[in-house]
Amino acid sequence: MVAKENEQDVGIDKQFLAAPVKSAVDKFQLLPEFLKVRGLVKQHLDSFNYFVRTGMKNIVRANKEIRSTVDKNVYLRYKSVRIGEPSVVVNSVMDQLSPHRCRLSDITYAAPIYVDIEYVTESNGKKSTATKSDVIIGKMPIMLRSCCCLLYGKDEEELARLGECPLDPGGYFIVKGTEKVILIQEQLSKNRIIIDTDKKGCVQASVMSSTEARKSKTVIVMEKEKIYLSLNQFEKKVPIMAVMKAMGMESDQEVVQMLGRDPRYGALLLPSIEECASHHVYTQQEALEFLEGKVAKSRFYSASVEKEGRAMVILRDVFVANIPVRENNFRLKCMYVAVMLRRMMEAIINKDAMDDKDYVGNKRLELSGQLLSLLFEDLFKTLNEEAVKEVDAFLNKPSRSRFDFSTYITRGRITVGLERALSTGNWDVKRFRMNRKGMTQVVARLSFIGTLGMMTRIQPQFEKSRKVSGPRALQPSQWGMLCPCDTPEGEACGLVKNLALMTHVTTDQEEGPIISLCYCLGVEDLELLSGEELHAPNSYLIILNGLILGKHRRPKQFAQAMRKLRRAGKIGEFISIFVNEKQHCLYIASDGGRVCRPLVIADRGVSRIKEHHMKELKDGMRNFDSFLREGLIEYLDVNEENNALIALYEGEATIDTTHIEIEPFTILGVCAGLIPFPHHNQSPRNTYQCAMGKQAMGNIAYNQLCRMDTLIYLLVYPQRPLLTTRTIELVGYDKLGAGQNATVAVMSYSGYDIEDAIVMNKSSLDRGFGRCIVMKKLAAVHQKYANNTSDRIIRPQRDGRNAEKMQILDEDGLAAPGEIIRPQDVYIYKQSPIDTKNTISGTVPESFYKDSWQTYKGPEGETAVVDRVALSTDRNDNMSITFMIRHTRRPEVGDKFSSRHGQKGVCGTIVQQEDFPFSERGICPDLIMNPHGFPSRMTVGKMIELLGGKAGVSCGRFHYGSAFGEPSGHADKVEVISETLVKHGFSYTGKDFIYSGITGMPLQAYIFMGPIYYQKLKHMVLDKMHARGSGPKVMMTRQPTEGRSRNGGLRVGEMERDCLIAYGASMLIYERLMISSDPFEVQVCRKCGLLGYYNSKLKAAICSTCKDGEKISTLKLPYACKLLFQELQSMNIVPRLQLTEA
Amino acid sequence: MEKVSVWDLPDVPEGQLPSHIQLQRTRVHCNPDAPTHTENVQYSGAYSSVGVDNSLQLEQFRKNFRVEVIRLGKEDMEFDMIGVDPSLANAFRRILIAELPTMAIEKVLIANNTSVVQDEVLSHRLGLIPINADPRLFDYKSENDDPKENNTIVFKLHVRCERGGPRLTVKSDQLKWLPNGSEFSLETSAAKSTAKPKTYTTFHTSQETLHDFSKKPIAPCHPDIILSKLGPGQEIELEAHAVKGMGKTHAKWSPVATAWYRMLPEVVLLQQVEDERAEKLVKTCPVNVFDIEDVGKGKKRAIVARPRGCTLCRECIREDEFKQDVALRRVKDHFIFTIESTGALPPEVLFTEAVKILEDKCERVITELS
Q: What is the ipTM metric for this complex?
């Protein structure tokens, strides 16, 4: 009964299913709209688009003019920059590129970077300026589906024509034919004060400053009640009061005033003031001299710096670099330090004021756009520097002919640099002191969900080995932003996270307008405030992206006004306004990398979205953006969520409620969204499934049969899950499923089902259950050589010695598609020239070529078939031939299967259908699962899935099991499911009366039976089974090789050896460790105890040390032992053997 | 069960089982928690202590055994088999599923396949097509046998989707029977041009002349099984060789979609259920096993009207209310047998064939024993 029941259900229309309307306004429809506008990988695309549209232009504008240092009149000015269409130059003709072509022929999907320039040329000693437009300075790899991509805005049909899957999310790059994704990087916020404790338990305030010009880390730490500044540029910690004095804050009283009137703060600062006095630092001049002595030596400073004083320069440029200093006015910086000190002291007085590093609001996600812009900035600056250097060198030459500045900027540096970074994943940017590895990963194309999951993955900046629990624990602030389930097991557990379904990651927004708006709304400028006023009660500090703007006396009204403006669309929708009442601060954030999510706005607990809004949405008169524009919905980031009271459902809203969730299941990510009824499962089971869903075989993409990946796993008859969730429909898992609906009986059978093994029905397998296709890529290159010779592919030999090997070859010398390929079969009959260095003149003789055919080395007994043969040109202009080898497998004992609830198991045995139990209706299960899988795992969701699936096949409607979906109708209730079952004559428990197939009599229990969606995982016995009698040996030690791929031996390891010793099986040890491994006969001289040799001419053994053959014994040793002796001898250690008569 | 002293039990007439034991012997009790007394009492001396002979008597069996056909269609049938042991009924079921031979495509020679469906998958799909050919007219073909007219049926499939045309759906009716055997010539025999070129089969006569295949040509049972879909320019050309086989080797040779039985349901009202309770009882059953009978004076009584329809959802004994009133049982020697044929043979023929096979088996045992 494999697919029979299910095939009919596919035809059900979804509109009918979506019909039920809830009492409150059904806001679910917003979700597909959100995904339409934002998409699952929108964060990547937005970030890249921002970089291409804005970031890159800013970089070029900031470095727009380069001038020769020799002749100041020689210059080049960039007027504009833009990115063209993805293309490749073939035989000096520009050819448009499609992503699929890049994948197939191993090229980079990149578009030229065009600049318009104005520059100086010189011919015959006459200088003139010229302009040129559309100069290509390099090529930028293009993110798929971004605004520069060929696929941008294309509909399904156009995508199909380009060989692209419409369900593929994009968001990755194609570099040299491999798909690479830049993982989202998690970091601590830049330019924010973070209060925490160091290793010794001292309270410290740290700021990671990051501006275009400089990046630095400033730490102010309290040690033995005294406060110090720790900065890389100073050799050791310096007293903070000295720093304050050096910045012109000579009066201690003013410093204390700036901390606030409360005597407790003054008391905490007293020891520091005293220490400063003990160093006799009273004036700015003294302070600067004092600091000068502390500056780390061995640094190179330019003359201007020396004149000014290094300490001064450090304080101005490095110390909290994010606070600008204009005309050596340090007042702002002093204020900022005062705020830092104040926050530190608050934390000392009250431990609650400490910041939490794991709090999501203190984190920023770095996306591909930002990372690429760093790289591009570096490469662009380097390009310009090198251009200047070359121009200088050229201009210094006495005799020079024509000179054209524009020729110096068209080097491949940018192209190569970007490509290398993307393909290796190493971001090595010296300019920004950045050296990170593993930033990119190859897109896993094992399953569709795995690919999607990769785009939402967040990589941590911490090293994984740290054994701390804090960063790994689930943070309450993750709610709705990061998926609570989807994290790997093992060392990266809790560190690698995934975005939730509705999360959006912000991009940078301009600060200028916001600053002026703030001043308009009544913010008092910081520079006009006295120190006393800084921490005056009943007024709040206004802080924009870590920069203190000033104070406001009525922060609530100010926040309200700002939010109103945001909802009206006057300022960016992603700007967050957060009132921190504890710190008496109001934070405005417009920086990039914050996570935020949309919420419905409620006024006094009443949702702004009414029934008619949703109706208009349904009729297509609205979209998500119009909701946003009209202020019905807004984005909140993690910090602003603290100012909101969010009701889960409309009905739960109270008068204080400010926001209402759109749908509760959006707190889960893509991978966890596949699980039906995850809220009924034990939590770790959902985590396991998130990891396993990525290994499930199924459909990869619509273009799966056109892809030429190294390894593809496909299911022959994939199905759509009978029990779906809303997420499944949203991400398209119902179109690219990875599993089959199996009728499962939960019972014990045959004893081959212990330890989670499952018993499978042979007839089900006969009819195609779990059947999969494995495709592997083989490649060959038709190489061209330096001496104008090249490989040649020739007609196969039809008779003769090698004829049998060449059966599958076509007349063109390549294996024909559709042929069965066996191990040792030749799949390409290629010959290579003997000589590839020296030039050959005249016609080449036949003997000039030697055979260099390639043979298939697959496992014996696997009937693989040549699926496709593709010819393409690779980057070096050689013809590359790729073969896809296909193998269809039916499940066998030992193959791994799993349901969607973290319940994996191997196939324990395969049983004939007639031996299988059957129900009163003649239904015979496809597989039998042992009930012991349930009690300890507590996967109640799986049981409900079974019930729901059973009700689904009975009534012909797909049932739903979205997370937390029961109240909103996105998950069917068990009561309702049971009613449906009863209506169709089943027991409400889902348990059936079953007859044994062997005895024919009824079983003495009712059996829980129904369909469950089962995934076949990629781990198959055929790829893993291994045994060997005798086989290859390693050259050096003459011991058997290691590993399955080398047909290696099975090692008797230390523990096994210990067992045998303890047991006393000495002969067995002797056999395993020597006879079956590396026995070797040696001649030992009894006189010197060294190894001799056997001279076969003289038929006598001789000791080469004693030069005689009198006292020689023959001995059996492991060859490795003999090798050890020789190696010891080679380092002047003499191992001597002393023999005794046995 | 209530505890009753042994001495208070009613006397049992000699040569008969006590009623509750008799009930246990002949009925499966489908209790709310689990079925009990599912096993059959085989041992002839099981009840010798009460003087009852439990041995199987042929005469008795002959008298009791009955087969009643309930429904007989072209492809499925339902009949009652009364008076047999479950092991016997099961034997028929097992034979039907696994041991009745049919013809199914076993070998596919693919000359050209440019469709999206892979060769193996296409072959697998072809194999599962039920073929309307009486397997009794064919012999088994062993590994070394040549494919001949008496053991092989050859089909041809040649479909091509023209460029510029709409997409095609290849269905099973496009499989054309080749009564003269394969048309693909063996490459090795290309040299001999005089004789008829050697093909993959060695048919001596056309199959059309045999039996009455000319009147009823061999073809797939169902014309609308989708095999593949072709896009413009794609083509499938192949030859499929069907041979005789059994369901235990591969499910494609199974002559039935499925065959199963269920024991006759017996629903007993242990006590009178009257009026509102009766109506409630009728309502609880989703398959309408119960009905209401007027007993005059406006009084109503529940009766068991359609016990056969009981699917054992146990809805009536789910709540405590009717637990004491209703007993759900299965009759152990009454089997409602259903056969769903794939179409190669009509279901009644299948059953008689199954009986023959069981006969053969019995004979084999007897000869082995003697």
A: 0.93
